[in-house]
Design goal:
Layout: E1 16-25, E2 35-41, E3 47-53, H1 54-60, E4 70-74, E5 77-79, E6 93-95, E7 101-104, H2 119-123
Parallel strand pairs: 3-6
Antiparallel strand pairs: 1-2, 1-4, 2-3, 4-7, 5-6
């Protein structure tokens, strides 16, 4: 049964979650040691960072992951955040592996999931607010 990002923890190894790709970088990776980086969102608007090593892209991913599209993501690792520049404030990060599978699905929501932030809030951000990209 599919879960939400709020259910993710490090104790369990087999996960199934519906995700929308908000942003994706370095897809496909240009060098063997590179990784694809994504911002994913679930149907409750919660975001999480995700990384995909080249080996996972070549094995089980659709030929083209696309921003704005929904997927069923399974068999991934839940790890502490490891990216130097975080794109979400989620307590964990998704790390895809050679067993991760990604299957296109119908949209779970029509929302674009944008979080608009006014300039004053950005200019006067607290230290905690500056820990991830807006």
């Amino acid at each position: 049964m599919a879960v939400l990002f709020s259910d993710l923890n490090r104790r369990k190894k087999k996960w199934l979650v519906f995700v929308k790709v908000l942003s994706i970088w370095n897809n496909p990776p240009k060098h063997p040691n590179d990784q694809t980086i994504m911002i994913l969102v679930d149907e409750t608007r919660q975001r999480i960072d995700a990384t995909v090593p080249t080996i996972a892209i070549k094995r089980n991913f659709p030929r083209e992951l696309r921003e704005g599209h929904w997927y069923l993501l399974s068999e991934f690792d839940v790890i502490p955040p490891s990216l130097p520049e975080r794109n979400s404030d989620h307590f964990y990060q998704i790390s895809c592996n050679r067993n991760t599978e990604v299957d296109p699905v119908r949209p779970k929501s029509q929302s674009e999931f944008f979080n608009c932030v006014d300039f004053f809030s950005i200019n006067n951000a607290s230290k905690e607010d500056k820990q991830f990209v807006v």
